Amino acid sequence: MLGRLNHVALAVPELTAAVAAYRNTLGADVTEPQALPEHGVTVVFVNVGNTKIELLEPLGEGSPIAAFLEKNPSGGMHHLCYEVDDILAARDQLKAAGARVLGDGNPKIGAHGKPVLFLHPKDFFGTLIELEQS
Amino acid sequence: MLGRLNHVALAVPELTAAVAAYRNTLGADVTEPQALPEHGVTVVFVNVGNTKIELLEPLGEGSPIAAFLEKNPSGGMHHLCYEVDDILAARDQLKAAGARVLGDGNPKIGAHGKPVLFLHPKDFFGTLIELEQS
Q: Is the ipTM here above 0.90?
């Protein structure tokens, strides 16, 4: 079921400094910030060739990364996103195996315009996993 | 400087359950556990096609992931490893930019038999970064 690693999401309190660190200090290929108000984040993509690193800054009230940044004020690794061929089949298989799907269990349209689901980090040893329809 | 994402390292308290979750629940391609006593971990590789996920369990006294697991007893995302063409040039460039290299600043031979360095997570917004000579 588990396909390629689509991205690693890193939550940061403030994008300007993070972009400078990745672009200037690490010499990475970094995009311009893109506001995604419907997802409560502003995102920058770091292209590392085989996958993407997403730097996420909270945007607006009730950002999905706000609680994480309260616990980790300087930022940190937020989630891993894997691609799956069929997100509904993946969900049904995961639920049958006892894994908890966050929210109401129905895929939402994610930041890349594709259906996504999140799995409970307690079922995966502290790692929040996003699945995205490929 | 920053090349492809070589792996994502996830620390887990105990590999048997983590292997079952990745192999059976997530349907991933998972190797057999490999003890690396000189690195203080037992490792399992999850092959997701474009990169690797490494599940790390502490091995022996003074494991480098022991402190992390004390803070995060159920496990969590431990570090990201990127490839670089020239690790000494990368180190010198990073130090010139003010980034802190952990340890004595000299590359060590990592778990894949190649020279590696770790960068201070405070300089990269809470993410521990490993650089590996490609």
A: yes
C-beta of residue A119 within 8 angstroms of C-beta of residue A129: yes
Task: Give me the half-sphere count of Cα atoms (radius 13 Å) on the Cβ side of residue A91.
Answer: 19
State the architecture of B5-133 in CATH terms.
Roll (3.10)
Which among A1, A17, A49 is the nearest to B3, CB-wise? A49
Q: Hunting for tokens 């993407």 — which residue is that?
A: A52
- Chain centroid, CA A11 distance in Å: 9
Is the minimum CB–CB distance between A5 and chain B shorter than 8 Å? yes
Residue A3 in contact with partner chain B when CB distance is under 8 A: yes
Answer for the pair B12, B31: CB distance below 8 angstroms, yes or no.
no
Q: Nearest Cβ partner of A2 from B18, B28, B93?
A: B28
Within 10 A of B36 (CB to CB), how many other CB atoms are there?
15
Interval B10-29: pLDDT, tens: 999 999 999 999 999 999 99
Confidence band, pLDDT 50/70/90 cuts, at residue A125:
very high
- DSSP character at residue A101: B
